[in-house]
Write a structure and sequence with these properties.
The structure is a single chain. Strands 5-4-1-6-9-10-12-13 form an eight-stranded mixed beta sheet, with helices on both faces. β2 (18-19) and β3 (25-26) form a beta hairpin. 24% of the residues lie in helices and 24% in strands. By secondary structure, the protein is α/β, with parallel strands linked by helices. The protein contains four helices and 14 strands. It starts with 7 loop residues before the first strand and ends with a helix. It has one domain (8-102, 116-218): Rossmann fold (3-Layer(aba) Sandwich), CATH 3.40.50. The protein binds cytidine-5'-triphosphate.
Length: 221
């Protein structure tokens, strides 16, 4: 691609772990594989890539040169606030918790203690509250039941203030394959191919669709 400088891409991936006490957490099954494949595909196409990775160790993550770690949604939010202004493209593939324990107990809760009642509180929205400039391009993800996929993805486009949404059926989580759909603000919908494809093949397909749009934004500056 003919750029004046390499496009700088920030990719978030993996789950968050929200602590209950100093040894236990509430997490989710995200493996970080999809985000890792996207980061690799972006690097292969000449982008400068930084990864913000949750607690996961997918194959290939080690080979990426610029990886920063978060554990909780709050840590991810803080990293994004600091890093995003220096990037052009955000791929928000992290599976952020929706709820977290309201209080974190000190030390370790013992088995002999009374079973703890864990009160949860909502995790504040990260992507939908992130400030972006007109020259930046944002790709959000949506994990949805297959029956509700497109309607929910369209609703998330606006709520997440994203330039497009990658909608995945629930079965994608922690799976080797993906059946992703790209949803654009003008109503257009693109499917990679009929049926599921590998996360690596889907990542290349996705990057080839998103990069020209992100490149076009750069000229706004
Ligand atoms: N996301 C976020 N902040 C949150 C939760 C999610 O920025 N607190 C981001 C995810 O990284 C993803 C997108 O929002 O890019 C959609 O995440 P998803 O879990 O599908 O949607 P939710 O907003 O959590 O809504 P719901 O669980 O009701 O579908």
């Amino acid at each position: 691609m003919n750029r004046q400088r390499p496009l700088r891409a920030l990719v978030t991936l993996g789950p968050t772990h929200e602590p209950m006490d100093e040894v236990r957490f509430i997490g989710n099954r995200s493996s970080g594989r999809m985000g890792t494949e996207i980061a690799r595909a972006l690097a292969e196409r000449g982008c400068g890539v930084r990864v913000l990775a949750g607690p996961c160790q997918p194959a290939g993550l080690d080979s990426l040169p610029d990886v920063r770690r978060f554990r909780t949604a709050e840590e991810l939010r803080d990293l994004l606030r600091t890093d995003w202004p220096a990037f052009d493209l955000l791929i928000m593939a992290a599976a952020v918790a929706d709820w977290r324990p309201r209080t974190v107990r000190a030390g370790k809760t013992r088995r002999s203690d009374a079973p703890p009642l864990v009160e949860l509180e909502p995790v504040p929205e990260i992507l939908g509250t992130l400030s972006s400039r007109p020259d930046q391009f944002v790709v959000g993800f949506a994990l949805e039941p297959a029956t509700d996929l497109l309607a929910s993805a369209r609703a998330k486009l606006a709520r997440k203030r994203a330039d497009c949404i990658v909608a995945n059926p629930l079965e994608t989580m922690d799976a080797p394959t993906v059946e992703g759909t790209l949803v654009w603000p003008d109503g257009a919908v693109e499917r990679a191919e009929e049926g599921a494809c590998t996360k690596s093949a889907f990542a290349k397909w996705l990057v080839d669709r998103v990069l020209p749009k992100a490149d076009a934004r750069l000229s706004i500056r």
